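Q: For a teaching session next week I want to show students how multiple molecules come together into a single three-dimensional assembly. I've collected the sequence lines for a complex. Could you give me the predicted structure tokens for the whole thing so I can convert them for display?
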Amino acid sequence: MPELPEVETVRRGLARHLLGRTVARTVVLREYSVRGQAGGAEELAARLAGRVFTAAVRRGKFCWLVMDDGQLLLAHLGMSGQLLVSGPDDAGVDPTHLRVAITMADGGRLLFVDQRTFGYLRVCEAVPTADGLPGGVGSDLAALPAPAAHIARDLLDEHLDRAALVAAMRRRRTEVKRALLDQSMVSGIGNIYADEGLWRSRTHYAHPTAGLTAARAATVLDAVALVMTEALAAGGTSFDSLYVNVNGASGYFDRSLAVYGRCGQACRRCGTPVRRDAFMNRSSFTCPTCQRRPRGVPG
DNA sequence: CCATAATCCTGTACGC
DNA sequence: TGCGTACAGGATTATG
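A: Of course. Below is the structure for the complete assembly, covering every listed component.
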């Protein structure tokens, strides 16, 4: 599942391979993959035609390409989305789940492949950032895609106001994992990195945010950021093959996960079997020894 | 302000 | 073997 590290890997690949190139034509193979696009697939194609990509930017799990006329090509990968930069004949690309094909003037292609179709592409307007600072990682432009203007900065954004985030978390009357997953509070964190960061900071997912000291809240955020930084370092190794795969495969999943998906297996710190709970209509994995359940939380 | 549920979708895993 | 069901999940929207 693409969370922040995977999307950052994609962004770097796009920045490396796509900037300065011109769009020739766009084919949308599945209308649903451009849902929300004003004017549908036809307008998407029309607004892309002839444009040059000038920057690749990311905030949280949202990634966008800036174009020479100021429009933005926004991508959200959802659960299974991939952006592939390929040569003219797309050799090696499985066409089964190909949703959008953008052919460049030089014959290369930017392909959007998405099995489960939670992801989407959209050409949209840029709106100014509220703080006048750069909109995300990858560009100094103080602009955001209009559909993502409500998304908060992420933990790898140098312009993130950490102290303000800690204060905002502690003001909220909710549980810490809910706050971590709230993309309007801090972006880029999904179920996997939330669980991993909470495990690393020995914090239970249902810990009340109002009961966190500022230091403890900072510790949780530091842990999540560290897990993401490590995942980023482990990913993004496949850029130089003949067919450049900008898919963000992390490599992190199988090797380094401490609790996520490891129900019943030994905690890597203390050996206690990892436990799985239903929380927010998804699974939460914890070590019952390392992550003590707060008072009043059932289970 | 905050929580919950439903919604979108398809491949995989599992029980019978 | 095959069929039905549950599950995986992020963001949005509606509703309480």
